[in-house]
## 1
Amino acid sequence: MLIVQKFGGSSLANAERMRHVAGIIADAYIEGHDIVAVLSAQGDTTDDLLKKAHELNKKPSRRELDVLLSTGEQQAVALMAMTLEEMGLPVVSLTGRQIGVLTNTSYGMARIMRVDTQRLRLELDKRRIVIAAGFQGYDRNEDITTLGRGGSDATAVALAAVLHADKCQIYTDVDGVYTADPNRVTNAIKLNEITYDEMLELASLGAQVLMNRSVELAKRYGVILEVLSSRERKSGTKVKEVCRKVEEMKISGIAKDNDVARIAVVGVPDEPGIAFRVFNTMARSKINVDIILQSYGKDGTNDISFTVPLDDAENAAEVLAELGEAIGFDHISVDKNVSKVSIVGAGMMTASGIAALMFEALYDAKINIQMISTSEIKVSVLIERSLADLAVQAIHNKFFG
Ligand code: ADP
Ligand code: ASP
Ligand code: MG
């Protein structure tokens, strides 16, 4: 079998963990499998590198950031290769360029365009263990790019897809995907399996366990993922197209996202074209808008509120202030003290009363809902950030208690 394994930063945090992971890789190799192990940077390396950069430049260019951040993964793969060499195993470490991960030119959030597997195949044919740097690629100018936070998951899935791997195993510091973050919700329940669509929603709505782009890729190329523990040897969670129905589960999970801010444009004219101009302004500034609410304001005007990623809040307010001059409005407010809490479940399409149950849980916990958005498989609410963990726990108790 050809197995792609991925190990995240916390699984590689120190020499002892590195040796432990080397043991997992070695065992699979000795069983006779071809192994490509994709690594993240060790522990908090990526955050530490970001801090270093910002000590010297508050707004470093994305290009130089990518040159810097990619070194974390490069260190990790070299060290892991040395660990396996020490165990007497044939091994080679390869960078993003060497594994042929060609991306577009969006530094810091590059998308994989193509993977050239020639070198990978060559090494595998020599029966070497390949230790591949996750998170990084190169663009058509031969510049180093990175894939966005958590991007090693995407590297692993992309390699599994192009190599037609038999398995793609995502080893991490929890033993699978749970109904909520098991490090925050005490009675979270481990799922044996989850569909791509549900996992994609959970990942996009803040469940950090898999990067959303990796789930997108897995769905597109039919790569079955297994999320499992790098600490204990036991089965994890399979992410795949269809799952056996667990009838009593109304939802699959709950996610929290702190990376949001709420923008309100208050007192705009109640006439055609206003919403278009507001959101066209956001689009032209490349700011993603999520939950949108328009309501009647004072004296026949409208208030338009919406959420944006936290880092874009100031920029959004600035460009909207310019637009406001042109269309007339009362004021703009920015609230960074909010979180989005969401429930996800494919069963929502057919069961009624799911949203009501979530709102009841929030009511019982005396938590005010600021905004709501729904789709076929999710309900999200915007609430005060300091209450978000309480909200997740309360909703979890309501559905799974
Ligand atoms: P890695 O370093 O292995 O990439 P991450 O920190 O990116 O690991 O992801 C694992 C973390 O995701 C866990 O430690 C857990 O706190 C968090 N997490 C959030 N939501 C969930 C969930 N629903 N199921 C499992 N883990 C979750
Ligand atoms: N090291 C990168 C990060 O911290 C990529 C990853 O961990 O997957 O985001
Ligand atoms: Mg991760």
## 2
Amino acid sequence: MSQARVRFAPSPTGTFHLGSARTALFNWLYAKHTGGTFVLRVEDTDRERNTAEALTVLLKGMRWLGLDWDEGPEVGGDYGPYYQSKRSSVYKEHIEKLFAAGRAYEKGGAVFFKLEGERYTEYDEYHKAEVEKVRTEPQVINDVVRGQVVRAEERDFVIVRSNGQPVFHLVNVVDDITMGITHVIRGEDHLSNTTKHCELFQALGSPLPVFAHIPMILNSSGPGKMSKRGDGVHVEDYERRHFLPHGLVNFLALLGWNSKDDQELFSRDELIAKFDLHGIQKGNARFDEKKLAHINTEQIRRLPEEDFLELCIPVLQSAGVDMSDGAYSEQVLLLCQSKVRSLMELPDFVAYFFDEDFSFDSKAGERLFKKGEPLDRLTEVRAALAKVDDWNAESLDQAFSDLAESNGQDKPFQWFPVTRYTVSGTGGGPDLVPMLSVLGKERVLVRMDSFPYRYPT
Ligand code: GLU
């Protein structure tokens, strides 16, 4: 497979929409997959919207997702500058080239691109006027995703506005040519621009890149396009909510692409190995926040322990959790790694490990008291656990078995709910015995003893 030169060409707006992030990811993956080059090019010709802050949000989001670029802002490269605002001389040169080839003309202060073909005039309903049209050869776009798209431009179009600003179509194509871009992977909303782009490539004597237009993303429900604004549609929202960058990457990869074998969870290396343009689907993708949450949970489980710990510490610190006992904190976190659904939920999930004043979940309490006599069970289990000298998961298992046996039971399950509730205030969480083992004998017995006072019945 030949090495691709691909680009992500955002116009920074101050937020980093998930749809753009997906375009960036598909380009990044394809570059990595082919051992090629991923270029970040900033389409900042709209001066008012493109502020330095807007660019910072974008670059920060890219870095957070781990989508490092080989050429572009802050890293440089042989094809720069990578900001359209700094490339006016390149555009000028190409506009002159079009003039020289008789493919550009001036009218009313603007510069138009001249189509080739027979000219005729026609009354146009939309413009309510006679307009000049051109019978051009249709352009055949061999889009990797859409298949063969045949369209023709009918009217000359503006390439430089009367204020001197070159328009998007021109700068986009000139940049793709001068940066040696081999594959244009971008949103389907640009498919309608592609005939214009093909005309420009040809007029400038350049071969066409391979096009791959990726499907739209629909809202989680209903037929509409995914919202542009609101909470949960930008990369920053997920960073703030402590999602794993790779959880989001894995989810975005599946928005319009699949590996043909229904695999849902991928490591970064697996994505790179399996991603290719033929796996991009034609049909629209659907944004499903539940799926994102699920993938995020699964990716938390798959993290190497050290990485998980490293990610947890700032989250817990900013929530004010006292982690002065480092070894204990580490045990707690590793115990919870396979159970917690998100890092956002982590501070609440582990609160009772760090605070004697933890709260009791009232629903779980009601359930417990509805079923028999929990305080009698508590007295029994407290006595059994008090006898354990060498406090660890094995001896605790043994203590529970002995308790069951001396009460004529096969299994100790009837003592579990009350034990869990008195020491944690919840009805769920990590497996009971490892949890007791980590909490330690002293905490467990103190909590059992204070339970009747803290939880009046
Ligand atoms: N600046 C354009 C956009 O953000 C890029 C289009 C392209 O990738 O060619 O949609």
